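Friendly challenge for the regulars: who can give me the structure tokens for this chain first? No prize, just bragging rights.
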Amino acid sequence: MSRAPRRGRSLEPDGSVLRWPGARARFALFGEALWTGILMAITCVPIVTWPAAVAAGTAHLRRYIHAEATPASEFFRDVWRALPGGALLGGVTVALGALAGVNLALAAGGMIPGGVPAAIVAVIIGGGAFVITVVAAGVWSPGVRWRHLLRAAPRLVVADFSSAAFTVVALILAGVITWQFLPLGVPALGLVAFALVAIAERRLVRLADPLR
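First reply, four minutes later:
Bragging rights claimed.
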């Protein structure tokens, strides 16, 4: 007698349990996001592998919310699949970040003429490349080539600017949390991956619903 009402209450008005059955246990989902952050942190040790780590982390959590199997072995298989192209992107973004950092340091020390405008341009270029790469990694799936994702990412940003804004906010919050206490960077990685999954799922729902 008591099971029917309970089952009825489990279905949210927006049908979220039907769309994302793995998200029904919210605390378990939070724990899975933290565990994903640990896996991503391990994978990010070589630094240039960070796009592959983000791609694997988002794919892992996407499978989880869809109530599919999520063994750690599958996460590392995804990392291996995402490495071709992903490592190259990681190297490019790291180089751009280093260039932006050097320009900022030189501008702060007044060591180069017109240093401030050059530093601003370098930061914009580096930050833009980073955000585009994160957006691409957030929609990665096995078998999809990075060059196709990089072509699609700017179109996704233009088509759904609010989702891009949410992505930037998530990255900034993760950066602030890590800056305040470095060990928190590990769970922050998992929470960023979950934010990317939520943003991508939100985008799918918005594009599928013509009334939105």
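The chain has a mean pLDDT of 84. Residues 28-79+86-204 form one domain. Your move, everyone else.
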